[in-house]
Amino acid sequence: MRPLNDQAIIVQVLISLFLYIDLLMIVTFFKKEAFHSVTRYIFFAHTLICDCTFLVISDVLLLLSYLRIIMPTSLCMLICAVVVNLNVATPLTLTAMSVERYVSICMPLRHAELSTPQCAAHAILVVQAMASVLMLVTMISLAVVMPLDFYLSRRVCSLEMLQTHAWQKNLTNAVSQFYFLLMSLAICFCYVKIMGVARVASGADRSSMNKGLRTVVLHALQLLLSLIQLWCPFVELAVLQIDLHMFVNLRYFDYVMFILAPRCLVPLVYGLRDESFLAALKHYAFFGCYNKITPVTKDKKNHRKASQRLQT
Questions:
Q1: What is the pLDDT of residue 206?
Q2: Distance between CA atoms of 164 and 307, rounded to whole angstroms?
Q3: Is residue 88 within 8 Å of 131, Cβ to Cβ?
Q4: What number is the average pLDDT over the span 248-265?
Q5: 180: closest CA among 141, 139, 233, 222?
Q6: Neighbouring C-alpha atoms within 13 Å toward the C-beta of 254
């Protein structure tokens, strides 16, 4: 068993930092009952839970692979299936959050009807069902080509072991690209619609809508980083044929930049930019010593006024 090098230690420090922030935000959500009835906070909590679970499992796989520790292949497949599901669930939830901002700003009269905890729960179920499609495609394609002895063996666990043929990689990449095409179109649609409403709004309404517009842009940035993650294997394969050392360094960079970085943007987008959530977060982070109270708003009153202005 070889010791961890500097790069592996840096990754552990980064993951520990991200997990601490995310877990603190999850605790804040569950302790503050006012957040439980607001759709955007429910989506935010779901994203945090997915990211925390993904970071923990992927980090364990990274350490096991680095230390060359073997495990039963059937167990490895189960773990990889969860990782594939969570990897897709985060950008899908971000898309749902962008759609919620669109409904809040562009359809204010229907926002109270559509933005409820029940609708949020149904949307999360849809997100998980859509995220499971890629996992099922991966597992079914593996079952088609691998013999029974493969599932009874023991080996070092990695996602690469699930794709032993080129057509499997092409199939999963095609499904992933289709996912991100749909998500990109949805986010672009929300951006254009919100921008159109923001142009004709004024005063406090315009400020609120510009904030929603910036949120959608940040979601698009995170989605772009996740999309680049799909292209990384192609670049890594080409570099592997040139130089092994360069391949190792590139893969380390890709993991930090396109897997860890997108998952640290979520707290910055919704946690630290939201005054109500930030006040509650500080309260629990400082063990109750920070007692500034910021009311939780549901974006109804201002958007109703904006809608009335647009109709007149």
A1: 65
A2: 55
A3: yes
A4: 80
A5: 222
A6: 19
Q: Does residue 59 contact residue 15 with C-beta atoms inside 8 Å?
A: yes
pLDDT on residue 302? 47
Which residues are 155's β-sheet partners? 71
Let me know: does 71 contact 157? Beta carbons within 8 Å: yes
Residues 127, 129, 134, CA angle at the centre, nearest 5°?
100
User: Which are the contacts of 239, defined by CB distance < 8 A and separation ≥ 6?
Assistant: 246, 247, 250
Q: Which residues make beta-bridge pairs with 154?
A: 72
Across the chain, the runs of DSSP E, i.e. the strands, are: 70-72, 154-156
> What is the pLDDT, as a whole number, of residue 298?
56
Asked if residue 1 has pLDDT above 80, the reply is no
Question: Which of 179, 173, 174 has the alpha carbon at shortest distance from 92?
Answer: 179
Tell me the mean pLDDT in the region 148-153: 86
Give 86's Cβ-side CA count (13 Å radius): 21
| Distance (Å, whole) CA 1 – CA 12 | 18
- Residue 307 scores a pLDDT above 60: no
Structure-block tokens of residue 87: 């990897």
Partners of 70 in beta bridges: 156
CB-count exposure of residue 204 (10 Å: 0-12, 13-18, 19+): exposed
Tell me what pLDDT residue 122 has.
Answer: 94
Pairing state between β 154-156 and 70-72: antiparallel
- Cα-based torsion angle of the residue sequence 122, 125, 130, 134 in order, rounded to the nearest 10 degrees: 180
Measured CA to CA, the distance from residue 25 to residue 8 in angstroms comes to: 26
On the question of pLDDT at 116 being above 80, the answer is yes
Residue 249 has pLDDT above 90, yes or no: no
DSSP 251-302: HHHHHIIIIIHHHHHHIIIIISS-HHHHHHHHHHHTTT----------S-HH
